Amino acid sequence: MTTTQVTLVQIDNYGPWTTTPEPRREMDLQTLQSRLFADVAQFLGHRDAYVFFTRFDNMIAVTNGVDGAAHATLQESIGNRYPVSVSLGTAVAERPVDALEAANGRLQTAGSAQDESRTEVLAGEYLAETDRSDLQIAHFDVVNATGKYTDQLNEYDTFINIEQAFGSLMRHLREAHGALSFFVGGDNVVAVCPDLPESAFSSAVSHVESDVDIELQVGVGRGASAHEAGFAAKHALEDCRHAGTSVEMFGAPAASD
Fold first, then answer.
1. Preceding omega of 194 cis (within 30 degrees of 0)
2. Which of 47, 55, 149, 172 has a CA positioned 20 to 30 A from the CA of residue 72?
């Protein structure tokens, strides 16, 4: 059984801030968002957690092993260094989507994301202990993306193909299993999953190929932290590339990192 701790990082009252006292320059906003994501990623990455940019004003993190005090430090650091503040909602569940629903609910109960009086909410539950079976992470990529797309099409059409594969995969894993999947650049998708057998990943690969005619391969890892599980998934994906298989499970331990 998996046990996933998910944290929602939400910029407080961000929409109104971007237009007050007048609309701000778009590239200034993009710069702020990307720097904020980079800082959150660095902070959580040093604690073996993962964070995904999703919509940038709302980021989703897998924070097994990161306690309430560390969350408070992250929140304080952002408040000290940025013109915006963030609220953090954290929850734990077997299925990642259920943990996210509960984390979202903690912030929604405190008030609207655009309520100027709702700032720096820190609410949630945190795992007291971690176990090597807590997390299952899958790392997908497109088979021969460079040969099929990057070297053959213009970049925008390549992007469309990759996004189609990502959209098909994320919907399938969310609806069928309660997993959360995130595009992480290039042709890569990282999925945070409940306890799934190899057949579920084979079905996901088949679904995407049938739906959008794009071939995927996936490595799957387990671990006590997002880094540990994710690094094992990377090794398993390398096994796919070397063996020409579509699914490989578990790979090498993160200790080799």
1. no
2. 55
* Homologous superfamily assigned to 135-256: Reverse transcriptase/Diguanylate cyclase domain (3.30.70.270)
Q: Are strands 180-185 and 247-249 parallel, antiparallel or unpaired?
A: unpaired
Phi and psi dihedrals of 5, rounded to 5? -100, 120
Taking the C-alpha atoms of residue 98 and residue 232, their distance in angstroms, rounded to an integer, is 24
Q: How many residues does the chain have?
A: 257
Place of tokens 């079976």: 133
Phi/psi for 108 (5° steps) reads: -65, -35
Cα–Cα distance between 106 and 96 in angstroms, integer? 16
Amino acid identity for residue 190 in this structure: V
pLDDT in tens, 10-47: 999 999 999 999 999 999 999 999 999 999 999 999 99
CB atoms within 10 A of CB 139: 26
Which amino acid, residue 228? E
